[in-house]
Amino acid sequence: MLLGLVVGLTLVGCKDQPKESATATKSEASETKQVSSDEYAAFRGEPPLEEDICFEAQRRRIPVLMFHDIVAERGKGTLWYDCTIEEFEAILTAIDIEGFTVISSQDLFEHLTTGKEVPEKSIVLTFDDNYQSFYDYAWPLLQQYNYPSTMFVHTGFVGSQQGRPKMTWETLKELTQSKLFTVGGHTINHYLDLKDRDISVQTSELADSKKELESQLGLTVDFLAYPNGSNGEDTQLITRQSGYKMAYTIVNTPAEESPNIMAVGRYVHTKYQEALRDRDGAVYGHPATIYRAPWNKKSKIKYVNDKFAGVPLRMTFGGMPSTHMSLTGREMVSTFVEREQAQAGINGGFFAMAAIASTDNAMVGPLKTPEMGEVVPDQSAERWDKINGRPLVVWSEEEFAILPYIPAQMHNEEQFQWFMKGYTDTFMAGVWLVHNGVPQPREFQSVVGAKDIQDLRRRAFIGITKDGQFVAGAAVTSVSSEKLAIAIAEAGVEEAVLIDSGFSTSLVFDGKIKASGHSSAKDPSRPVPHAITIKGVVDETTQDDEDLAVQQPKKRR
């Protein structure tokens, strides 16, 4: 798989001098973290009692590479996951050329659990099984590039010369003197079915190997790699109880999209290009970022009826939003608005049962309204791959935020409270339409959007302006999400996400239906289980009598 990469890089070669900028220093990282964290420190709650992947980590997508034996060349007896010296050097060179910074497992851990800033293009290098070839072939190159790495050692085989030689305790002690080297646990006997073993066996393999490593090397071992990636809930619990801070699997996923800190994904080195594609898809398609800003509480509610980029939009700007669930299963948006004595409202998040006649109110993604004590996570794991990375909207009385939703990890009330203290509302949106005032192009939207994301239909959205005004709006003609994004950006919206659309589309302002999913005045939009109401003072200059609930006179041709 790497032959093309190797051929393409044979003329490049290594640098003669160590690349000083290859590793993020602690002083640089802490300085950057200080700048990024202080701005929103007042909005954060207390961290969870147990360290885990935090929402703030969603600003990055970091691939972790996994190597095993490094061999001089391929021949009889080599395995598919062996890596030749030439292939290994080609990967190191590619990392350099493509502008990646190699960070340590410790840097990754701090990034995942605290949101510590790391370079935008970061990558982690790990090695399994303590092969002597690491010291003979890989280590000199890693030193030359100044790249940090982590070696996972199975203690029952240290110094073994049977089969493929393993490094001795003396060699490991020498390596640990370098700041570029980290040693991690890999159990005692390397059972490939570790998760299926008796609890007592798992405990011994995980805890006793850690103690042996620490005793022999005189240091604390914080990280683990499960043999063959074998782990389950019990294994992860024992790993945490044994004192490990982070554990790696062999599931191919960027680190930030892992289910938890005891199951961080990795890519075998032969999937280096796949790892980069996954990283790029997430960075540009989700996008891998967090937008958060304080509300503009002084803004009056203003209604806008105009064309932008050729798309007729109906929008409200300003006011304070609040989400609500139907009291009867499903209701018209106008019913929500009237009950809450609000000035405006729009349909909300996506629901599982799309049938118009259904009264089922099960939502897709996590949900919290002000009436709910804590977040209700998405329970349908079978759809998690499909909705992974879609925008998660979170707000409190003080601020508004959008970030990528990772269903396998975002299900704990403590996580939400740590991200945003006193948050009142959260739900999953369909796709990020506008980011930093720029419309997201079709290719970015397609990464996490539904298959019908570009179908022509009436579409609804919410967002925020640069000065903190909440925006709710809809297209009153059928448009694609790409075209809608262009129109929203032209309307001056800084951030916007797609909410449930099509027949659900319904914007209500001043007691009148302004946008509808149906063309019939008799039944302007279908009832929905979830809606957003908007309260505030209406701008006195707003005048618009259009009401789709009332039959409008036909225009003469």
Mean pLDDT: 89
The biggest sheet, with number of strands, parallel, antiparallel or mixed sense and barrel status, is: 7 strands, antiparallel
How many helices?
A: 14
Number of domains: 2
Low-confidence stretches: 1-37, 552-557
Structural class call reads alpha/beta
Explain this structure.
α9 crosses α13. The protein contains 14 helices and 26 strands.
Q: Short summary of the structure?
A:
The chain has 557 residues and is an alpha/beta fold. The protein has helices at residues 3-9, 26-38, 85-97, 105-114, 132-145, 169-175, 199-217, 233-241, 272-285, 333-339, 384-387, 413-419, 442-448, 481-490, and strands spanning 64-67, 70-71, 83-84, 101-102, 122-128, 149-153, 181-185, 223-225, 246-248, 267-268, 291-294, 302-308, 311-317, 320-325, 344-347, 391-395, 399-404, 425-428, 432-435, 438-439, 460-464, 470-475, 495-499, 506-509, 512-516, 530-535. It has 2 domains: 62-285, Glycoside hydrolase/deacetylase (TIM Barrel, Alpha-Beta Barrel); 310-535, no CATH class.
Task: Chart the SSEs and their pairings.
Blueprint: H1 3-9, H2 26-38, E1 64-67, E2 70-71, E3 83-84, H3 85-97, E4 101-102, H4 105-114, E5 122-128, H5 132-145, E6 149-153, H6 169-175, E7 181-185, H7 199-217, E8 223-225, H8 233-241, E9 246-248, E10 267-268, H9 272-285, E11 291-294, E12 302-308, E13 311-317, E14 320-325, H10 333-339, E15 344-347, H11 384-387, E16 391-395, E17 399-404, H12 413-419, E18 425-428, E19 432-435, E20 438-439, H13 442-448, E21 460-464, E22 470-475, H14 481-490, E23 495-499, E24 506-509, E25 512-516, E26 530-535
Parallel strand pairs: 1-5, 1-10, 2-3, 4-5, 5-6, 6-7, 8-9
Antiparallel strand pairs: 11-17, 12-13, 13-22, 14-26, 15-24, 15-26, 16-17, 16-18, 19-20, 19-23, 21-22, 21-23, 24-25
